Each structure stands twice: as structure tokens, then as C-alpha cells.
Amino acid sequence: MSLEDPKTVPLKFESPPEPSEPVTAIAALRTIRVARGMSLDDVSARLKFPARLIDALENERWDALPKGIALKTLTKNYTRLLGVDFEALEPVLRQHLSATQSGIANHTSTRAIGESMEETRSSGSAGWVVLVVMVIVIIVTVAIWQGMVPDSLMPSWLKGPSNVG
């Protein structure tokens, strides 16, 4: 029974950091992770994010983290894994979520995505309704003009003059 035998080697556990300064909401994620017995590698494997990003998030090294949607996704998935409410962390992340330099995230900040989708839905829906109504009117008009609609279904004002003798 040697220490080199993988069956006898104890599991690696990290100890929570000693609070030298007040613990922030983000830094508390590490404490929760360690309390649940999860290593950075465990979290990395489950979230499909590199361990260096998770470590950077726990230590609030914002320059080493992605910006915008990627940061929100990482944080949301991490809080879900730990069973923590993401809404409590969102105010802390807000300044880092919208700090993008270029790309599509520059045009659609995470805060405005829902708003822009609502605008698109409302204006797009009205356009589709108008288009569908126009197509139906055209189809009915052509059907009447070509005599495809039986006289019993036609209103009297559309039948035209009758040749009753």
C-alpha cells in the first residue's frame, strides 16, 4: 500500500482562501466550489471552459476574461453548477459585460438583446400579417374572376347583373 498507488492517494482538496480583505460576491464562488469538494478541473470539465478562465473569474482578473456574452455565459453556467443565484452577481458583472471592443457584441450588448428582439418581433409581426392578408385577397379575387367560386357562395353584390327575362 504505497502512496504511488492511485487507489490509496487521497483526493485533492483545496482549502478556502483566507479572507485578507472583504470577500466579494464573485470571490465567494471559489469558497462555494471548494466547500462542495470540486476542483477547478472538475468545474472546467463540466462547463467546457478552460480552468484558467474559471480561476480568473474567481479571482476577478477581468483582463484575463472574455467580454460580453461569453463572460455572461461562463458566469451563468458556473452559478447554475454551484446552485447560486446568477441575478445576485449580475450587477457586479454589468460593467464587464458591455465592455467589448469590436465584433457583433459591440452592436448588441447583453442588456439590449432582449429589447431589440422585442422591437423586431412587433414590427416584423405586423409586416407578416399585412403580407398574408394581401396574398389571401389576391387569391380570392383571382378565384372570383376566373369563376372558380360557386354562385351559392358568392354574395349578391359580387354576382353582377343577371339576365332574367
TrEMBL record:
Q: What's in the keyword line of the UniProt record?
A: Membrane, Transmembrane, Transmembrane helix
| Record's keyword annotation contains Transmembrane | yes
The keyword Membrane is annotated on this UniProt entry: yes
This protein's source sits in the domain of life called Bacteria
Q: Which InterPro entries match?
A: Bact_Cytoskel_RodZ (IPR050400), Cro/C1-type_HTH (IPR001387), Lambda_DNA-bd_dom_sf (IPR010982)
Q: Where is this region: Disordered?
A: 1-20
Where exactly are the transmembrane stretches of this chain?
Answer: 126-148
What is this protein identified as? Answer: Helix-turn-helix domain-containing protein
